[in-house]
Amino acid sequence: VYKHYGTNLREDWNGTLAILFGKKPELGNFDFTRELGLFHHFEESDVVGFRSGWDDNDMLVLLYATDYDRLSHSQCDRGHFNMYAYGHRWAIDSGYGNDGKIENSATTSQAHNLVLIDSVGEGFHPSVRQASIYADIDYFAANADLGLTRANLKQAYDFYVWYEWEARKEHNPVQKANRNLVYINKGETPPYMLVY
Question: Are the C-beta atoms of residues 75 and 111 closer than 8 Å to each other?
Fold first, then answer.
């Protein structure tokens, strides 16, 4: 996933994104925490991940602000989050698994774990199966105990894009639209997160 338009342009791919999503491969004595860490902002695609560790029962939290690319799958889901822990999916972005009872229901914001503003989701035109929208992670800070990130979703609500950024159309202009995620992993309690 590359970011081509919007405020923070990205053209490079960092293959470490794949390791964040999958199960831990068997690599003998490889120290995942030392080598890969417990948190990262993948700036090329604007995905943020926080982990409590690399075992199956550890927590993994992801926040997405990826941009539209006309050559790939894209839905109205900028700012969605996923949380996996104790071998289960606790909070997921349902996407295709959702039947919102409306046309192209998997594509619209109603099919995702997002906020509707004045009952309207992110930029979407029903004649286009893809949701051509943009967003940015505009804040990220983390250490071993605490992580904070913010997705700026204003462009995702303001516009829908007709295949090219230059052909964007006004959708539902807003003053601001942010999704914040706080991740806490202090050790006295199980790790947890707050999304607002």
Answer: yes
CA–CA dist 146, 186 (Å, integer)? 7
Return the ∠ at Cα 15 (arms to 20 and 97), rounded to 5°.
50
Does the reported pTM lie above 0.85? no
Cβ within 8 Å of residue 184, ≥6 positions away:
145, 146, 191, 192, 193, 194
Q: Which two tokens stand for residue 115?
A: 């906020």
pLDDT of amino acid 169:
85
Residue type, 125: H
- Spatial distance between the Cα atoms of 157 and 98, rounded to a whole number of angstroms: 21
Nearest by Cα to 104 from 124, 133, 79: 124
* Residue 134 to residues 47, 130, 183, Cα–Cα distance (Å): 13, 12, 24
Taking alpha carbons only, the member of 150, 192, 149 closest to residue 59 is 192
